[in-house]
What we know:
Blueprint lengths: L2 E7 L2 E8 L4 E10 L2 E5 L7 H10 L7 E5 L5 H4 L9 E3 L16 E2 L5 E4 L2 E5 L8 E5 L4 E5 L15 E2 L2 H12 L8 H11 L6 E4 L4 E3 L2 H16 L2
Parallel strand pairs: 4-5, 5-6, 6-7, 11-13, 12-14
Antiparallel strand pairs: 1-2, 2-3, 3-4, 8-9, 9-10, 10-11, 13-14
Helix pairs in contact: 3-5, 4-5
Bound molecules: zinc ion (2 copies).
Amino acid sequence: MNYIFENVTKNVFVLAVWDSSWNSYNNCYFIVEDHGVTVIDSGKLQHAKYIEEALYSIGKSVEDVVLFIATHGHEDHVQSAALFTKAKKFIHPNEKNMIEYPEPEQFHYELPDQGIFRDFDCQLVGYHTPGSVIFYHRPTQVLFTGDFLCFFGDPLSADGIVSEGNELREAWLDYLKEGGVPKEQLPAFLEGLKTIQPFDSIAICTGHGGVLVGESKEFVTELLKVGNSLLLF
Ligand SMILES: [Zn+2]
Ligand SMILES: [Zn+2]
């Protein structure tokens, strides 16, 4: 199977494309609204055909995409944005010098460090890349974390890609306990967690692999607790 395409909630969809060269799923997300489709992250260039197929399967096309926002500028999050010729494309200004996109002038480098952008709360998290942001979509209460919080290379939950994913949560906590976040980057990671803790989301849409449903605040709080205990050593 090349990809999984599923609902996260009524009008939010996840497209997770299997990338055998990276041994990971690469995720992108569609929010379908009356005024058009918003796409968050886009996959690599070679994933473009799956985006077209997935949009087609819900009666949409790349022409319907009016807004593209990237959590950060790595190739697996921006390259297929070239498909969306009708969309305005946004990314945080800190990504300007590192965006892995052939025509960087197509992007508006205007996302706020912290504040409202369209229907989203946008929050700079300062971990993974200098301009990595998370988006909280107010109308649907869905949180998009990009690679700040993701399951790169991890297997999906036995309950499916969109699920509580308790084993994934446990695995992330273990990874953190075992020093998966390098010590010098830990303070920035914890600061990022603190800024996303207030968002009471119904689902955490990550940059790679599992989408976690429910208990998002509890999970972030648990990560903070473990992370803070590591700082003591
Ligand atoms: Zn990345
Ligand atoms: Zn990524």
